[in-house]
Amino acid sequence: MTDTDWTHVLLVRHGEVAAEHQDTFYGSAEVALSEDGEIGSPLLAAKIVEKYDQPDAVWSSPLSRTLALAEPLAAIAGLEVEIEPGLLELDRGSWTHLSHTQLEEQSPGAIAAYLEDPETGNAPGGETESAFSKRVYEAFDRAVATNPGELIVIVAHGHVIRVLMMRAKGWDVATSFKHFVPYHSIVEMRAQPGGPSEVIAAPEGSQPRALRFTQR
Description:
By secondary structure, this protein is of the alpha/beta class. It has a single domain (3-211), classed as 3-Layer(aba) Sandwich (Rossmann fold), CATH 3.40.50.1240. It contains seven helices and six strands. Strands 3-2-4-1-5-6 form a six-stranded mixed β-sheet, sandwiched between helices. Helix 1 (35-52) runs parallel beside helix 2. The chain is globular.
């Protein structure tokens, strides 16, 4: 198997969201970026081209916080952004916009139940882990199949990147929650259309802030 058989994929998490959202379950809702997130997104786009060369395709979740990075990156490369709804963040249902404290007051034990089993402990009205993973995997596989052997950038969200790393590394769900990457992080992968994927490089991750019982 040669390198040309693989698609080179950069998974990039969007920039920092505004402070009022950072410890909440904002999920797939539209939320504003912080000033650092807004300023840093086009700067990161330029750095990606400088370090990895111009991408052959740029794929993105349809939310504004991902497009803030995907659009300037595509402009540098002379491309149009491929907007993929399957790359949306996890739908948090009735937990959307609640903080850790608010959720525990409203539904004591809900976070512990979710961490123990995200499939059955998911937010009411939100996505299960299996449904979420399925749509993300299908979206990723479409992107890889559309751009075989090329360099593609996928701008997405924390849980989207988490489950793609989980599949590539064979982690269980509990392990994957310990590798939630920071804002503006890059996970470098390679993948085959309809085949395996491998993580080449990834930053150190941690558990999502809204899920932590010991807050910062």
